[in-house]
Design a protein that fits this description.
Blueprint: E1 2-10, H1 15-27, E2 34-37, H2 53-62, E3 65-68, H3 89-105, E4 112-114, H4 122-130, E5 135-138, E6 141-144, E7 149-152, E8 156-158, H5 165-175, E9 180-184, H6 193-205, E10 209-211, H7 213-218
Parallel strand pairs: 1-2, 1-9, 1-10, 2-3, 3-4, 4-5, 8-9
Antiparallel strand pairs: 5-6, 6-7
Bound molecules: zinc ion (ZN).
């Protein structure tokens, strides 16, 4: 059984929090995790990746898996975060292309697509495949385009549940048999390190191997 670890909503405005999460993971010996990067966070010009060279060099130095996590991560007309909700193939393909063109400017090639809030229309999934990614993650699926194989996740453990140990125990119990996704968000950077340590120790003791999306998608 594998547990895919990711830091979500990675963009320059959360640099300090992301580095703290990174330090916690590295501190516990976690070697593989994915940075889910938003290249044009909330459509704010000064947060575009190409306008933040020091943040870009931080990401490059990390040498970790990088996923495209939406273009702006914002569905402007609904004031929500589900950017690819109900989106047509054409509109999704355009947003993915625009996101990738920002990445190209800073010479980073994302390996896959992680839908904001795990919400993506069918058109978005087709557009992600057309963009040449190794994988896409949405709903309860991690789909490997390379291997034409899907893995099902029935539980995503988010950092904010760690404050309730009994919930974590039952979530891990329910997850058993399926692939687990562990999602840390910038707000989780205030978590007590002991809680994270307990979670990771518990997950590994249940036989899960920690990995990133790309390694998972390419594994045999
Ligand atoms: Zn997100």
């Amino acid at each position: 059984m594998q547990a895919v670890v990711a830091i979500h909503d990675v963009n320059p405005v959360y640099e300090d929090r992301i580095k703290r999460l990174r330090d916690m993971l590295v501190g516990f010996g976690v070697k593989k995790y994915t940075y889910c990067v938003v290249p044009f966070f909330h459509g704010v010009e000064k947060l575009r990746l190409d306008k933040n060279p020091s943040f870009v060099s931080f990401l490059k130095k990390e040498k970790k898996d990088i996923a495209l996590h939406g273009y702006t991560h914002l569905k402007v007309n609904h004031f929500s975060e589900e950017e690819f909700f109900r989106m047509s193939y054409q509109a999704a393909a355009k947003r993915i292309k625009d996101g990738l063109s920002i990445f190209r400017k800073v010479k980073i090639k994302p390996s896959g697509f992680v839908a904001p809030v795990w919400v993506a229309s069918q058109g978005t999934v087709l557009a992600a495949e057309g963009a040449g990614f190794n994988y896409a993650t949405w709903g309860n699926k991690i789909f490997s385009f390379k291997r034409q194989r899907e893995a099902i996740t029935n539980v995503v453990i988010r950092g904010n549940v760690l404050t309730i140990p009994s919930t974590v125990m039952s979530l891990i119990e329910i997850a058993k048999g399926d692939t687990l996704q562990l999602a840390f968000h910038p707000t989780d950077s205030i978590l007590k390190v002991e809680l994270l340590e307990e979670l990771l120790t518990l997950i590994e003791s249940k036989g899960y191997k920690l990995t990133d999306y790309n390694s998972f998608a390419l594994s045999k």
